[in-house]
Design goal:
CATH class of one domain: Mainly Beta
Helix content: under 10%
CATH topology of one domain: Neuraminidase
CATH architecture of one domain: 6 Propeller
Distance between the termini: 10 Å
Oligomer: single chain
Largest sheet: 4 strands, antiparallel
Order of helices and strands: EEEEEHEEEEEEEEEEEEEHHEEEEEEEE
Shape: globular
Strand order of the largest sheet: 1-26-25-24
Strand content: 35-45%
Length: about 325
């Protein structure tokens, strides 16, 4: 399998996305590093261009209006088919809790590079210990995973109404007994406990019928009909009854479909991208030693799978306080079958 590195960044990135016209965007959370910028377009020469403007990428560290109007800790960037870029800011630097006023979803017009709308999340939508992680769009709504507490958050993009769903359901929670082993070492905090990362990767099938999701610290992939998520008359129990078990995988981060209905997942324990085919076969698509914590997956319009490798497991919190990350951080591209 031919693998190309299409970008290298000096600081630890998370999200990556490719627009319909081929523009490449990445984002840098405030996990450890101070990001400058938080969101960037990768220029033809590989340089980072602050996006959508310089000012929004400079937060002064204070809550309230400053957090509301600037990038605090951006986790995801997603370009859609309508030439818009969606930027998800859970606003939880160092995973230490949501900065008041900071949690938000932005819509940027890629034709004009202008911010068209900002959806702000209050404490009900994004509780203090939440971490809004990934976003997908369908049927006039945004669907967001919360990996901090475990839930699916929906946003009506017309009215702005936000609903927090499946927050008490086991499908959005880390699974007991799952202890990932990455690069030959158990992934644990210094106190010996395994990080409990809840609903993380999400994806929507090409027919826009189901939302697929799973916990990072988990091995079970679930799905739920989008129509059910959008039915405001449905009780929490009835919604729970419509959750379906799809497959057993391993600990994964990003998920994404191609147009043929193949679901690609980042297999953290295997430094690999795996593929769940429509017929249920689950197999390795690509693997390499350099795929160090493959994180976010995106599928480009020219038939490639693009993903970031974040070296997340090499951070000091999991290595006795020693930073074992080795810049640069790579963005890889693989040709789809």
């Amino acid at each position: 399998m031919s693998t190309a590195i299409i970008a290298r960044t000096p600081k630890q990135l998370a999200g990556v996305t490719v627009s319909a016209s081929g523009r490449l965007f990445v984002n840098f959370p405030r996990w450890i590093d101070e990001p400058h910028p938080s969101v960037a377009e990768i220029a033809a020469d590989g340089s980072l261009l602050p996006y959508p403007n310089q000012a929004i990428n400079h937060w002064d560290g204070t809550p309230g209006q400053q957090a509301k109007g600037h990038f605090v800790c951006v986790q995801s960037v997603v370009a859609d088919a309508e030439n818009r870029l969606w930027i998800l800011d859970p606003a939880s630097p160092l995973f230490q809790g949501v900065v008041p006023g900071g949690a938000k979803l932005l819509k940027v017009n890629l034709a004009t590079d202008a911010i068209e709308q900002v959806y702000h999340f209050d404490d009900t939508a994004a509780p203090p210990q939440s971490y809004l992680n990934d976003v997908r769009l369908a049927h006039g709504s945004a669907f967001i995973s919360d990996s901090g507490l475990g839930a699916i958050v929906t946003v009506n993009l017309t009215t702005g109404k936000v609903r927090r769903l499946l927050a008490d359901h086991p499908s959005t929670k880390a699974e007991p007994g799952v202890e990932p082993v990455i690069e030959g070492r158990p992934w644990k905090f210094d106190n010996g406990t395994t990080p409990q990362v809840h609903s993380d990767g999400i994806a929507i099938d090409p027919k826009l019928e189901h939302l697929y999701y799973k916990a990072l610290t988990g091995r079970t992939l679930y799905r739920v009909p989008i129509a059910v998520l959008l039915d405001e008359d449905l009780s929490a129990r009835d919604l729970a009854d419509r959750v379906e078990h799809v497959a057993q995988t391993g600990p994964t981060d990003g998920l994404e479909f191609d147009s043929a209905g193949n679901l690609y997942v980042t297999a953290l324990e295997e430094n690999a991208i795996k593929i769940l085919r429509p017929d249920g076969r689950y197999e390795t698509f690509a693997t390499a030693r350099e795929f160090l914590w493959p994180d976010t997956i995106t599928v480009s319009g020219d038939g490639h799978l693009v993903f970031s490798a974040t070296q997340f497991h090499r951070m000091p919190a999991f290595n006795g306080g020693v930073d074992k990350r080795k810049p640069p951080y790579n963005v890889f591209r693989l040709k789809l079958p």
